[in-house]
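Key idea: predict the complex, not the pieces.
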Amino acid sequence: MLEIEQKFQISDKSQLLAQLEQIGATQGSPLDQEDFYFAHPSRNFVETDEALRIRRIGTENHITYKGPKRATVSKIRKEIELAFEAGPAALSQLKEMLELLGFQPVRNVKKQRTPYSFQHNQRHFEITIDEVEGLGTFAEVETLAEEAELEQAEAAVIQLAGQLGLSSSIRTSYLGMLMQQEESHGAD
Amino acid sequence: MLEIEQKFQISDKSQLLAQLEQIGATQGSPLDQEDFYFAHPSRNFVETDEALRIRRIGTENHITYKGPKRATVSKIRKEIELAFEAGPAALSQLKEMLELLGFQPVRNVKKQRTPYSFQHNQRHFEITIDEVEGLGTFAEVETLAEEAELEQAEAAVIQLAGQLGLSSSIRTSYLGMLMQQEESHGAD
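Result:
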């Protein structure tokens, strides 16, 4: 499956919450997420625009590969995500396995994620509000699609974002933003 | 944990079964196992003596990293094994993820494994009888140990193997044997 996603910085969260209520989006439970990003042993993921991460959601663990971004307006990319054994012991074992295979830990991203789901024209959307440690509040509008319905799905994401009053989408990942911040702060 | 293992080719399986019964080993359910081995994107696992594999046991899926073998008599090596989502869809997704990360599929090893467990002097042993497709019948005697009790654990494995009438242990992996066989058969 392909992931089609737009991301926005949020200055007025209460306004977005009002819009979500107005369209009838369903709020899910807030999730405590921590992402651990890794560098490839022989490929520069910054240049290839790929990502490999372990995501902890509460005590659940997932491994996720993200392929290069494709489209210009939204983020469209291949994503493979698989759950593995839960708990902190399994998490540190998978980290160790990746490091033994030559994947280097880059940094982690911690956030509180509140998911909202929304169904429109037989399409399922996920809207998430993220409170990202060190970065602030963001919203993502996302859907999944097969190759054949890609254009239609992208148009639907753009339309829904507009309806929610979201504009000026951001293409940089949280990881990228945090690393830019580190660079600009120098040795801080 | 470290895995300490000795492996033997079996010509007379009924004799081994009689020995297992005599020492009071407990038979487990036979398992249908399939291992998918991968080559590293930038390291030669044959030279570094490491292995990365996906193991399917029935419909369950595991990923396993094996570090270089250390001792001379037994096989002693670091092993990290983690379960991930079950079922054929998750299996093919993890294969795809590894391939997208540059890990190349080498070949698979299919076997029917019958495990026996045995407790002796507060130590747990696993003895397995493997019917390996294309290779024949083998037995493995294995225990797990922390670094500090390594010598003691290795001596216990050697002793148990002797007690079971097993001699001339083999250090080559099933994968290695199958690849040697392929080479010697040329283009067959």
